[in-house]
Amino acid sequence: MIAPQLLSYDEARTIAKRRLPRMVFEYIDGTAGTGYGESLNLAAIARIRLQQRVLVDVAQRDLSVAVFEQKCLVPFGVSPMAMCNLAAPNTDRWLAKLSAKYQVPVGVSTIASSTLEQYIEWSEGFAWFQLYFSGDGTQTFKLLDRAKQAGYQSLVLTLDVPEVARRPRDQRHGFTIPFRMGPKQVLDFALHPRWSLSQVIAGIPKMANFLARDFHFDRGASRAKADWTTLRRIRERWQGKLIVKGITSVEDALRLASEGVDAIQVSGHGGRQLDALPPPIQQLRAIRDAIGSDYPLFYDSGIRSGEDVVKAYAMGANFVFLGRSIQYAAAAGAESGLTQWWKTLSDDVSITLALLGKTKLTEMSDCRLL
Ligand SMILES: Cc1cc2nc3c(=O)[nH]c(=O)nc-3n(C[C@H](O)[C@H](O)[C@H](O)COP(=O)(O)O)c2cc1C
Fold first, then answer.
1. d(CA 108, CA 130)
2. Active site residue 269
3. How many CB atoms lie within 10 A of CB 40?
4. 0.90 cut: is pTM over it?
5. Is the peptide bond before 178 cis (omega within 30 degrees of 0)?
6. What pairing do the DSSP bridges indicate for beta strands 65-67 and 70-72?
7. Is the pLDDT of residue 247 over 90?
8. Residue 115: helix, strand or coil by DSSP?
9. Active-site position among 173, 192, 216, 269
10. For ligand 1, mutation pick of 23, 79, 92 (most atoms within 8 Å of CB)
11. 152-188: per-residue pLDDT in tens?
């Protein structure tokens, strides 16, 4: 396969749309409700204006940033996403390899298409395990112990999914995990023979963590029972770094910090949960202003370019995570699509810094916003 040039998010998305069965594309691309929440956030990011400065020597620019005690070679990592191998077989492995090479976190979803043990090995220890609370919590705590045993140092607890939002595009195209095949799905797969064949050869992706005995997960089951006591139990049981993902409220952020959470990932789940959210990028600014400059804040949702990465740092992030763009790069160009997208983003971040008169991402906190 000749790898396409992935010079922008839109290019990657357009090629991915052509290559993926409609059902899979709609699952990745889809949002809750009408998608207005996602578009508001994208517009809010687009509206951010950064003041350039001139006559600063920006010949030597450094893209590395520190996350906890770890030096990351690029200022972005991969947000946890379910079933990445649906984009292309082996996507999980490629993501883990990128994570090791650039020393950045790759999130391993509870419902990943490879096991948490495979991910930690492939990523040479850089992976972070993402936990969903579900049911009465029995399975949740078992998974937490399993991640600890596998050698994970960081746990990402996602809290913005007390129920999976209604995603009309999933429903319209009959997306379920595992797949439920009807005539519509058979036709869809038949119309995308290259994808279908590659998946059959590699083995249809499954929720890999739940192939083990005594581990069960129902994607649609309620996760609504978690409360502050649950958080305390998790905090007591997990001695590594605890990151809470899916926060847009200043009050929640302050309370989480006071409960001993090590970092917060400000996120609107890419518009896939509450459609009525305020734009998460604005909430990042509000949370940073309230929580002070020292507390680690990470950000994801709506990052579509290196310039967007830089904007998120200007709004107060200490690290940025990518979602859909990663899946589209993999679907569009397999491993070389991913490495190309990685390079496009890195070049874009570096050039944006130069244009702003900055040499490091840490200098973005004093960039004037217009
Ligand atoms: C296909 C897909 C699956 C996802 N699965 C999970 C998941 O299992 N756990 C989780 O915490 N977030 C999940 N997310 C949300 C991402 O971690 C991230 O918050 C979001 O994609 C960022 O927005 P962006 O896609 O606009 O970059 C998923 C997102 C997508 C697109």
1. 6
2. yes
3. 21
4. yes
5. yes
6. antiparallel
7. yes
8. coil
9. 269
10. 79
11. 999 999 999 999 989 988 888 888 888 888 899 999 9
The tokens describing 294, both together, are: 């020292």
Q: How far is the CA of 56 from the centre of ligand 1 (A)?
A: 38
Domain 9-358 has CATH 3.20.20.70: yes
For the chain, the farthest-separated pair of C-alpha atoms sits apart, in whole angstroms, at 63
The pairs formed by 225-231 with CB atoms below 8 angstroms and a separation of 24 or more are 225/133, 225/135, 225/136, 225/137, 226/133, 226/137, 226/159, 226/162, 228/255, 228/259, 230/133, 230/137, 231/157, 231/256, 231/259, 231/261
Is the sign of the CA dihedral 305, 301, 80, 29 positive or negative? negative
- The candidate with the shortest Cα–Cα distance to 157, out of 38, 264, 299, 282, is 264
Sequence-distant (6+) residues with CB within 8 A of 105 are 67, 72, 77, 78, 99, 126, 127, 128, 154, 319, 321
d(CA 304, CA 38): 12
The whole-angstrom separation of Cα 337 and Cα 339 is 6
Could you tell me the residue ranges of all domains in the chain? 9-358
Beta strands 297-299 and 319-322, pairing class: parallel
